[in-house]
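Checklist before submission:
- one chain only
- standard amino acids only
- sequence pasted in full

Submission:
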Amino acid sequence: MEVRQSDKLAHVAYDVRGPVLAEAMRLEAEGHRILRLNIGNPAPFGFDAPDEIVADMARTLATAQGYSDSKGILPARRAVVQYHAAKGVEAIDVDDVWLGNGVSELITMTLQALLNDGDEVLIPAPDYPLWTAITTLCGGRAVHYLCDEQADWLPDLDDLAGKITDRTRALVVINPNNPTGAVYPREVLEGLVDLARRHQLLLLADEIYDQILYDDAEHVALASLAPDVVCVTFNGLSKSYRVAGYRAGWAVVSGPREHARSFLEGLTLLANMRLCPNVPAQHGIQAALGGSRNVHDLVLPGGRLHDQRDLAHRLLNEIPGVSCTLPRGALYVFPRLDPAVHAVVDDEALVVDFLRQEHVMIGHGTGFNWPQPDHVRIVTLPAVEDLTDAISRFGAFLERRQATAQ
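Returned file contents:
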């Protein structure tokens, strides 16, 4: 008898690590070197973890062999409270913090604790596809509200409001945004909070890139604008502190917790079932949040992240038929291929062809739940020389493709 996957996976997709990655691995097995620009993984591109994080984890390794509290160790949770309190999030304490094996685990636990079959979650389009995948896996329905490329990828509040129904349970806000790099101004966030308030929605704030900001961009914590709305804020060390492999993240619940007692009991139950987050990585959280925030040097003019962002934006806009909005945060660009110049029916096939011809792996826009096959996502982590080479190859690939189509 054939052993088949669960029917629950029938409509679940996570294309960031999907078929394109499988093709890249096949090519690597044949001996080809692949430049992976599909995922925001800082370490392979020469971004080292701050010394104090590694040192604190090393010092405590011998005593980190047993289980911790299921929510995580107290010093790390206290550091998380202090970090978010400094961002204006009121009335939170250590009991409102859950540590996890990265934000991904905590998103999964939160949606498992929240959703019944058929419940709806408002998720931006484009999105970080884990949100859509886990909503679907939990029996929910992902309802995508549009972000407007002509308005620097800010959410279309009218589109969002028109998609709220009596089954809507939560509103996901990804700020700074992955994949677009948009950073939402205060007035837009206030509009999102107002919708959640009027329709009694749970706010789910994905703020993993809150320190990776360019130019004059300011990050406003969503929970700081919503003291009267239940909000779960997700953050961690993987991006700003360049330790993606340590899997150290957290979720903070704020607002009127008495309205969410049953949900929080479910979240606690799930935390208990996984026993605890990995303990060594927890010891890096206090060192990170109490440290020098040295990511700031990387995002200022002259810093690697800033200059690579500028370079990618400029080079992409120089390709005929390609346009790219300037990201104000995060680690990505999300350029558009003008359908009048580059007719694309299947954007996954496009990036697979590019991978096979040029040995560079990027993401296709529909993999981020953008409705049209006219965008790609490119990670801006490589050094200037590698990024220049990759985008030059992309331009040459598009030129060859266009010539063949004529």
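Reviewer check: The first helix runs from residue 19 to 29.
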